[in-house]
Amino acid sequence: MDAGTGSQERMRILVTGSTGQVGGELVKTLATLGEVIAPTRAEMDLTDAKSVREMVRALQPRWIVNPAAYTAVDKAESEPELAYAINAEAVRAMGEAARETGAAVIHFSTDYVFDGTAKTPYLETDETNPLGVYGASKLAGEKALAESGAVHMIFRTSWVYGGRGKNFLLTILKLARERETLRIVADQHGAPTWSRDLAEMTARVIRRCEELSGQNGTGSMEALRSMSGICHAAGSGETTWQGFAAEAVRLQRERESGISFAEIEAITTAEYPTPARRPMNSRLNCGKLEERFGWRMMDWRESLRRVLADVVK
Ligand SMILES: NC(=O)c1ccc[n+]([C@@H]2O[C@H](COP(=O)([O-])OP(=O)(O)OC[C@H]3O[C@@H](n4cnc5c(N)ncnc54)[C@H](OP(=O)(O)O)[C@@H]3O)[C@@H](O)[C@H]2O)c1
To answer: CB neighbours of 115 closer than 8 A, spacing ≥ 6?
Structure first.
């Protein structure tokens, strides 16, 4: 287990999924706020609700931050039980244990709870209708957490990427060096979101909430109950997968002028069938996040530039 070096008085934050894209960034970013404890999968297996309850009871954290998830969108179609165990039942257990111990839960969810038929960016209050098992299991997790009675905040995000882990950007950069042409879907619309931006947003949310609970006197998490609910948190701006890939390759060409990169061709979703259907409109309206927590997510072009310059060598 990776425990922070803080003293006893430091606020304790339990972070799941530290080997993942968002979890890895959270462990670093939240260490500035308190004692971060990041159990490995062996120490807290989300397929085992009992181990989740026991870990929360043993650690008694003030905050539980849960980016861990079953994220294999296509594979979920053939492993629904596993997807539901991790994305819904573990979240229910986490919420129930948080309610018992007085912790607040920050949880991450997805644009894939929507069917993508809306013509405008989705609001938190819009009707959900997942197209596949992954989205349905994440929606079940949102509901389970709300029903648990824990103080909770759910951040729905989209198209997460960064300089580490398994993600679209890193796959494209690798393939673009190996091939002459890459054919990428150009009719699904959304926004790439930098894992580090999500971690920094989470730190802002915790800071804001701590200020609020302090102002209310007791410092109790109950003071935050009115903050409970869903907020959308995706990169600003919008593009398509093809637009994202083309911009990444364009920037990379500028950075490495001697290297030849693939041309990026646009195709339709119908030309690239996958086991799970994806929403054609993944755009999330993030106005509530800005209004409530004063955080505007970074424009996807700017975060892409930073990831390429700072992280991808
Ligand atoms: N990636 C996206 O494009 C995207 C889009 C929208 C929303 N989201 C949501 O954003 C959050 C973060 O996503 P991400 O991209 O950071 O995910 P990720 O890179 O796939 O990481 C998932 C993490 O969950 C852990 N995990 C999986 N099964 C587990 C289990 N049984 N017990 C304990 N840990 C387990 C993984 O551990 P191992 O390393 O051991 O497997 C890994 O640390 C998730 O809630 C996801 O649903 C992601």
So the answer is: 129, 130, 131, 279
| Helix, coil or strand: residue 228 | coil
pLDDT, one tens digit for every residue, the chain (313 residues): 544 444 447 899 999 999 999 999 999 999 999 999 999 999 999 999 999 999 999 999 999 999 999 999 999 999 999 999 999 999 999 999 999 999 999 999 999 999 999 999 999 999 999 999 999 999 999 999 999 999 999 999 999 999 988 899 999 999 999 999 999 999 999 999 999 999 999 999 999 999 888 766 566 788 788 889 999 999 999 999 999 999 999 999 988 888 899 999 999 999 999 999 999 999 999 999 999 999 999 999 999 999 998 866 6
Cα(187)–Cα(266) distance, integer angstroms: 9
What separation in Å is there between the alpha carbon of 261 and the centre of ligand 1? 30
Distance, in Å, from the CA atom of 236 to the CA atom of 239, rounded to the nearest integer, reads 10
Hey, whose CA ends up nearest to atom 21 of ligand 1? 20
C-alpha 257 to ligand 1 mean position (Å) = 35
